[in-house]
Each structure stands twice: as structure tokens, then as C-alpha cells.
Write a structure and sequence with these properties.
Elements: E1 3-7, H1 13-27, E2 32-36, H2 39-42, E3 51-57, H3 65-72, E4 80-87, H4 94-104, E5 108-116, H5 120-126, H6 132-138, H7 145-158, H8 171-174, E6 189-191, H9 201-205, E7 211-214, E8 217-220, H10 229-233, E9 239-241
Parallel strand pairs: 1-2, 1-3, 3-4, 4-5
Antiparallel strand pairs: 6-9, 7-8
Helix pairs in contact: 1-7
């Protein structure tokens, strides 16, 4: 069976989870090709697979735009697909949205699961370093995660078709936030030149190719999904959102 795994990841929670899922398939004797979802990878969508896994973090009660763009580019042709998402709190109707879209594109959804991980946007935007809130948010993890992963993989391999979940009862309350309420922050990106060591991690890591070299310096554009990968992964904290993130938490999953 040809299994392919595509995942979107900002700070890295979904990337770590994807590795766990890939490892479980491997332990069961399957070979998996997996790749991060970016603007570049979407230009060459997966082909020739029998089973496709798609993972993503929940951003403001919805899947990232690049995930939706990937699904819209595919023809399911009756093949199987499974989904997994990471969330800090509520997921809204994210699973319902991608499963409905997958069905429209001709896929058979055979498994889906939600996993709790620390909310990387809340840590960066609201948590001072060393605060009680930082400790609380970093303690958010799914219990019995390996058992969840095992169940997801088992269902992906042997499961029957499942229907999109019903709309969450709180959907009317969160629907106004489905459009990114933090989009205004895009214009606040700042590069502190005295801190920047020009390592290029932000350029390589940006899923939308929104960060580039310009005359030997880092330049950040406006085509941003606010995955916040550049801030969390910068080794010298040279990238900031104005002054609001000067003493807030950077996060890397372990």
C-alpha cells in the first residue's frame, strides 16, 4: 500500500505528531512518504497513493489556508484519506470542514483524530517568560497520546468510511473568528538587525515563501498565514511583532 503523509506545521507540534504517526506505520511494516505542506510542496501535490494522511494545527477554529488549497487540488478517485489535527483548546468545525471538502473531492475518509498540544499563538502573544500562564499552557497535552496514535493508524489501515462530524454546538459563537482576528499583526513584523545572525532559518521555514533575502537582509512580506514559525524558531529572537513579543515565550515541542 502506497501511503503518503502531508502535514502543515508552524512551531512544530504537528510535525512532531506526524513523526509519531509515521513511526507507528513503520512499526507495522508500512513505508510512508511524508512531507510538510508549503506553497512549494502544493505545487507538486501527492500522486500515486492508496492512502493519504493530512495533518494540521487549528488556527482560529479553522484549518490553515494551505491545507484547504492542497485538498482543492486533488482528485480523490475513491481513495482513502485520514486527518489528524493539533489544538490548544477548541477546534471549531475544522474536521468537519476538511472531511466535507475531501468528500466533495472524491475521497473516502476512514479515520480522523484531534490531539491536544500547547497553543503556540497564545504562548507567543500573551505569555511572559517564566509566568504561571506559560507553565499552564505548556502542560496541555493529550493523555495517552500513543494510544490515540495507534488507534488512528489502525483505523486508517482497516477502518470503514466515516462521515463528517456534526457541527459543534458552539459554532455560532466562534464563527466570527474563522477569519484570522490577528491578521492586523502581519504589518507589525520587525527584524532586529542587531540580533539577526543571518542563519536563514526563517527563509527556509516559511510555508508561504513570504520571507526572503533582500540586499543581504531579511525581508518579510504580507502574504502571511501567521503560523508564527519564524518567531518561535529564530535562535536569537531577532524577529518580533513590534514590542508586544519582546519578552514573551518562544516554543519548540519536545
Amino acid at each position: 500500500m502506497n501511503i503518503q503523509l502531508r502535514y502543515y506545521s508552524g512551531a512544530g507540534n504537528t510535525e512532531v505528531l506526524s513523526s509519531e504517526i509515521e513511526g507507528e506505520f513503520t512499526r507495522r511494516g508500512y513505508s510512508v512518504c511524508f512531507e510538510r505542506i508549503t506553497k512549494q510542496s502544493n505545487a507538486q501535490p501527492p500522486t500515486g497513493f492508496d492512502l493519504l494522511g493530512v495533518g494540521f494545527p487549528v488556527y482560529h477554529f479553522r484549518p490553515p489556508r494551505l491545507v484547504v488549497e492542497l485538498l482543492n487540488s486533488l482528485d480523490g478517485g475513491g481513495r482513502s484519506i485520514f486527518f489528524f489535527l493539533t489544538k490548544g483548546m477548541a477546534s471549531g468545525d475544522s474536521l468537519r470542514q476538511v472531511m466535507t471538502l475531501a468528500k466533495e473531492r472524491g475521497f473516502r475518509t476512514v479515520a480522523a483524530a484531534e490531539f491536544y498540544y500547547p497553543g503556540t499563538d497564545a504562548l507567543l502573544l500573551f505569555c511572559k517568560k517564566g509566568s504561571t500562564l506559560e507553565h499552564l499552557l505548556k502542560s496541555v497535552h493529550s493523555r495517552k497520546l500513543q494510544r490515540q496514535v495507534n488507534r488512528l493508524v489502525e483505523q486508517a489501515i482497516h477502518g470503514a468510511v466515516i462521515s463528517p462530524p456534526a457541527q459543534k454546538y458552539y459554532h455560532p459563537l466562534v464563527a466570527p473568528f474563522n477569519d484570522n482576528p490577528y491578521q492586523y499583526l502581519v504589518e507589525e513584523f520587525t527584524v532586529l538587525r542587531d540580533r539577526c545572525i543571518k542563519c536563514g532559518l526563517c527563509v527556509k521555514g516559511c510555508p508561504r515563501d513570504n520571507i526572503r533575502w533582500s540586499s543581504g537582509e531579511i525581508a518579510i512580506g504580507l502574504e502571511c498565514d501567521l503560523c508564527l514559525r519564524c518567531l518561535h524558531h529564530c535562535p536569537t529572537e531577532a524577529i518580533q511583532l513590534g514590542e508586544r513579543t519582546l519578552n514573551t515565550v518562544r516554543y519548540k515541542p519536545v
